Amino acid sequence: MREGQSKVILRADYQPPAYWIDTVELAFDLDPGKTRVLNRMKVRRNPDVTAQPLRLDGEELNLARVLVNGQGTSFKLEDSQLVLENLPEGHEPFDLEIFTTCAPAKNTKLMGLYVSNDSFFTQCEAEGFRRITYFLDRPDVMASYTVTLRADKARYPVLLSNGNLVEQGALEDGRHFAKWVDPFRKPSYLFALVAGQLVCREQRIAARNGKEHLLQVYVRPGDLDKTEHAMNSLMASVAWDEARFKLPLDLERFMIVATSDFNMGAMENKGLNIFNTKYVLANQATATDTDYSNIESVVGHEYFHNWTGNRVTCRDWFQLSLKEGLTVFRDQEFSQDLAGADSARAVKRIEDVRVLRTAQFPEDAGPMAHPVRPDQYLEINNFYTVTVYEKGAEVVRMMQTLVGREGFAKGMSLYFERHDGHAVTCDDFVQAIADANPESPLAQKLDQFKRWYSQAGTPRLKAAGHFDPVSGIYSLALSQSCAPTPGQAEKLPFVIPIALGLLDANGNELTTGMHVLTDATETLTFPGLTAAPVPSLLRGFSAPVVLDYLYTDTELLTLLAHDADPFNRWEAGQRLATQRALGHIRNESVAPADIRLDHAFIEAMRVILRSDKLDAAFKELVLTLPAETYIAEQLDVVDPQRIHAVREAMREQLAQALFSDWAWAFEAHSENGAYSPDAVSSGRRALAGLALTHLCLAARSSGDSVWPGKALQRFKDASNMTDRFNALAALVTSGHALAAQALQRFHAMFKDEALVLDKWFALQAGAPDRGGNILPVVKQLMNHADFTLRNPNRARSVIFSYCSGNPGAFHRADAAGYVYWSDRVIELDTVNPQVAARLARALDRWKKLAEPLRGAAREAIARVAAKPDLSNDVREVVSRALAD
C-alpha cells in the first residue's frame, strides 16, 4: 500500500477517542513550496476511556517540533501517526504544540492544503486535515478554532478561514495577516482556508429576528459577472431554511469560494463553503438551464449543511448519510418548493428518481453494494456514493411520508433540541423523528424501519391484481423481497410506504390512499367495483424499490393518458418504451435497422407531444427514452452494443414517425423572449432541443440537409448557452457532417471558458458510436492542448464521459475500451486517487456482460489490481469487483 491505513475499518469496532481537543490555534505562513503550520491545542484525557498514548494522524508532513506545556517531549512516528506517551496525568487540559511544514504546490491529490491557479485552498473531508497538521482527524472530536493566516499581500490579498474575521493588518516585507475565530465547535473535516487573488460579490441580508448578515461569493477576477445566480440561490436558501424549518443563519457572514481544481461538487466548511466552479459560475452565454438548476441545488445543499452536518455532525464516517442523505432530501425539497407549480415539482421529482434508478440501483446490485449506513470500509472516500446520498435521501423522504410534513418538521426541531453541538448517529435522527410523532407508523415500526439503514440492496415489490366480477372485489396481493448482497445473504422485510390509486378503464380515479407494507406478503381488498380497475402503484415513487407488476399495454396507455399522479404517468411511458426495447434486444434475429415501433406506442407519444394540457418539461421527460444503463439493469446478460443499437433505432423511428410533430414542437417552443432559467422557460427550451435532435436524426436517415442547416443556424444565432449547446448536440449526436464546423466554431468562441470547454470535450467523448469511431476521438481529445489530467473536471469531461457515460462505445468487441480504461485508472491513481477510484467503478457491473466482453473486462480489472503500489482508494474498488 502506498499510503495510510490498509486495514478494513469496522463500524462495530467504534471506540470514543482517548483524548478530547477543546481548542485549536492555527498559524499559517503560506508559501506554495513550503507552508509553515503552527498548531497549538488544549488537549485532555477522556475520563471514559482507559489511559493510553495519544495517536495523532498525519500524512506527507515534515515534523519540526513537539512541545507539551511548553517543554520538549519524546515522541515516535508510527504508521503515519505521531505517538505521544509521556503526557500529563489526570484529566486537566494540557497544552500541545506541533510545528510542521507541507508543500501545497506538490499536492495533486487536492486533499488537505493545495494550490490551484496560484491560490491556496483546502479540502479536509473526509481525512484531509491530517495532511495539514497532526491531529485527531475524526468527526467526533469537536473543537473551537482560532486561525491566523500570513502571506505575501501582493500575491494573496484575500485571506479567509472559518467563522468571523476579528483582526487583520500589515506585516513587514510586504506581508499581511488575517485572524479568524469560529464561535462554534466543529470537527477537523470542516476546517477551511483560502488565500489568493479573488474578487467577491457581496449582499447584506436581514434575518427574521432582525440580525444582519453578510453574504459573499468569491471568484477569480474576470468571473464576477457569473456569480449573480449563485448569490440569489444562497439568499433563497437562507430564507427557505428559516421559513421551512426555523433554522437561521448563525454567523455574521457566510462565504462561498469557487475553484476550478476540486474533487467534489462543493464542501460545507463552517461559514466558508469551497465550491467547484461548475456549481457557482453561470451566465446565459456560458451556462445551460441544467447548470443553473444544479447551482441552485448545490448552493442550497451546502448551506443546509450548516445545520444538518455542521451544528449536528457525524459520530463516525459510517454515519455519513446522517448528514448527506438528510441534506440531499432538504435540497430536493428546496428545489421543489422554489419550482412552485405542481407540474414543476413533479418534473424535479422525476429527475431525482431517474438519477436513483440509473446510478444507485446498479450500485445496490453490484460489488460495491453497501447499506445506507455501511458496516465497513477500507477507504472512506469510496463511500461518498449514490447509496449514502440519494438512497439516504429516499429513506428520509419515507420518514416524512410516514409522519407527514408537519410531523417531520416537529421531528427536526426535536433532533436539534437534543443534539445541537454534538456528533451523533443515524439512529439518533430516526429516534427523534419517531419520538416527535409517537402515533405514526414510523414510531410503531421503528426497529423494522431502521433496516433501511442496515440492509443493502434494492427491495423488489411484487404486486398482482385479481378482480372477482361476482363479488365486485378487487384484490391486490403484495409481496416484498431483497436479493443477497456482498456480506448479507438474508434480508428481513422492510417498511415500505405505497402510495396508490385505482383508475377505471376511462381513466377516472376510483380511490386513492397510502398503504404501509411491513410483512413479507399482504393482500389488500377493494369492494364495490363493477369492473377490473387499473392500479396506479408507488405514486410519487413513495419508496426506493423495484415494482414488479405485469402491466398490459392497455393499462399503461390508460395511466399515461389519465393518471392524476404525474410521476406514474411518466413511469407508464417509460415502461412502454422499456418493454419494447427489451423485446427488440432479446430478439437477435431482427437487425436494429429493421426494428419497427408499433402504432399504439407511436400514437401515445404523439398525443403527449401535441397535448395542450401538459408542460413542455414533462413532455420532454416522457419522450426521452430510458437510458441504456437503466435498460441494461433489466437484463440478466448484457450486450451494451446491442442495447445501444436498439435504443438508437427506436430514437430514429420516433424521429421519422413524428417528424411533422417534432417540427411543430420546435417552432412552437423556440422563442421564449428574454432569457430566464425559470421552470417554464427551461422546459420549453428542453423540448425544443429534444425536437431538434430528433429532426436531425430523421434527416440523417433521409439525407435531408434542411434541418441540420437549421440546427447550424440556431447554433450561430442562439442568445443563450442552452439553445446553442442543444443545437450543437443535435448535430453531433446525429453524426451530421456540419458537426465538425460547429465544434470548431464552438471551441473558438469559448476557448477561454474552462467550464464551457468541459461541455465541448464531454459531448464528443459521449457521442453515439458509429463503427468504433469514438475511442480514437477520445484519444485525440486527450492530446488536445486544452486537456489536462490533473484537473478533475477536465479528466471527467473526457475519460468519464467515455468510460462511464457511453456504454455503446466503451464496451468494444476488441476490448480496446477496457485497455484504455485500465491505463487511465493506473495513470490517474498516481495523480489523484479519489478521481481514479471513481473511474475504476465504470466496470462495477462487468459480471453481467455477455462473453467475450465479460472475460475481457475481468482481465482489465485484474491488470489494475496487479499493480503493487495502488492507493487504498482504487485497490478497494477493484478487489471488490473481482471478489466472487
Distance between the termini: 23 Å
CATH class of the domain at 1-154: Mainly Beta
What is the CATH topology descriptor of the domain at 1-154? Immunoglobulin-like
Structural class: alpha+beta
Q: CATH homologous superfamily name of the domain at 1-154?
A: tricorn interacting facor f3 domain
Strand order, biggest sheet?
6-5-9-3-2-12-15-14
Counting DSSP E segments of at least 2 residues, the number of strands comes to 31
List the keywords.
884 residues, alpha+beta, Immunoglobulin-like, Neutral Protease, domain 2, 8-stranded mixed β-sheet, 31 strands, 41% helix, globular
Your description of this structure?
The protein is globular, with a radius of gyration of 28 Å. The longest helix is centred in the C-terminal third of the chain and has 24 residues, at 679-702. Helix 2 (289-304) packs across helix 3 (320-339), helix 3 (320-339) packs antiparallel against helix 4 (342-364) and helix 12 packs across helix 16 (640-657). Among the domains are: 1-154, Immunoglobulin-like; 313-454, Neutral Protease Domain 2 (Neutral Protease, domain 2, Orthogonal Bundle), CATH 1.10.390; 460-550, Sandwich (Immunoglobulin-like), CATH 2.60.40; 751-884, Peptidase M1, alanyl aminopeptidase, C-terminal domain (Zincin-like fold), CATH 1.25.50.10. The strands form nine sheets. It has an eight-stranded mixed β-sheet, with no helix packed on it. The protein has a five-stranded mixed β-sheet with strand order 17-18-19-21-20, covered by helices on one side. The model has no long low-confidence stretch (mean pLDDT 97). The protein is built from 29 helices and 31 strands. With 884 residues, it is α+β, with helices and mostly antiparallel strands. The chain starts with 8 loop residues before the first strand and ends with a helix.
